[in-house]
């Protein structure tokens, strides 16, 4: 996975402690005291994170101390524990790999529903391989492939049992998949470049803008996926993409011209836009010309 909206796009804390400051704090080993510490330091889900850290340490005081101090610097919790739960499935997450977030779960769940039992799916910008692993778990007879430009992500997804290819979007995928894919899904970079400074300030202490930067209005990579998916999708195949804000409206003309129909905006239980789901009509619609400077 590669991105999420600026309203939710960072770790669950409001400030960052320098390493030296983190080293000067006494670390408690009981749930109540550890939760109180994380709450004081600005963590939103302090009790939940404390429980995960205690479980990870397994009673090893030294391991707990080191893990908590790393977390206090803003390092993603999943990089410390090496795991995250996504759609109820345990996913390995290595350092320097994008951490799957709960806000991607609506897109993943719909992708499962659209994938036939013996079908084929592609997960773009797979990151740890979380969405691909969810698809493969629920559709064990289907073929699920993924791609990512980051070698660390490819290694992590491979460790999660994903058939993953190193490269940009569709470029590294086998050509024999063309016009045979039932579902294309992706969490590609979609944060508008001007909004990157609005993310939680510790986001780029550990992560790079590569996983987030979607260009001026956040749709640069989204439009590439819309344009290139028809080469792989079979008629009636589904495209599901995470996005936010008014980006579904910004993409409306592209979706129509490229032959996508039945566009549905996916929202979470609070009503916030989390993605789009659409069906490729596949009746010979001509693709849009590439934009100037586009790949």
Architecture overview:
The chain is an alpha/beta fold and 295 residues long. The protein has 2 domains: 19-73, no CATH class; 85-91 and 96-280, 3-Layer(aba) Sandwich (Rossmann fold). The protein is 32% helix and 19% strand. The protein has helices at 19-23, 31-40, 46-57, 61-72, 77-81, 105-114, 130-138, 151-159, 203-206, 220-228, 247-250, 252-257; strands at residues 83-86, 89-92, 120-124, 143-148, 163-166, 181-186, 233-242, 260-267, 273-280. It has a 7-stranded mixed beta sheet with strand order 5-4-3-6-7-9-8. Strands 1-2 form a two-stranded antiparallel ribbon. A hairpin with a 5-residue loop joins strand 8 (260-267) and strand 9. Helix 2 crosses helix 3 and helix 6 runs parallel beside helix 7 (130-138).
**Using DSSP, what is the number of strands?**
9
Q: Note poorly predicted spans.
A: 1-15, 286-295
Radius of gyration, CA atoms, in whole angstroms? 20 Å
What percent strand?
A: 15-25%
In CATH terms, the superfamily of the largest domain is Vaccinia Virus protein VP39
Helix content: 25-40%
Overall 3D geometry? globular
Short description:
This protein is an alpha/beta fold and 295 residues long. 32% of the residues lie in helices and 19% in strands. It has a seven-stranded mixed sheet. The chain has a two-stranded antiparallel sheet with strand order 1-2.
Notable traits:
295 residues; alpha/beta; 2 domains; 7-stranded mixed beta sheet; two-stranded antiparallel ribbon; 19% strand; disordered N terminus
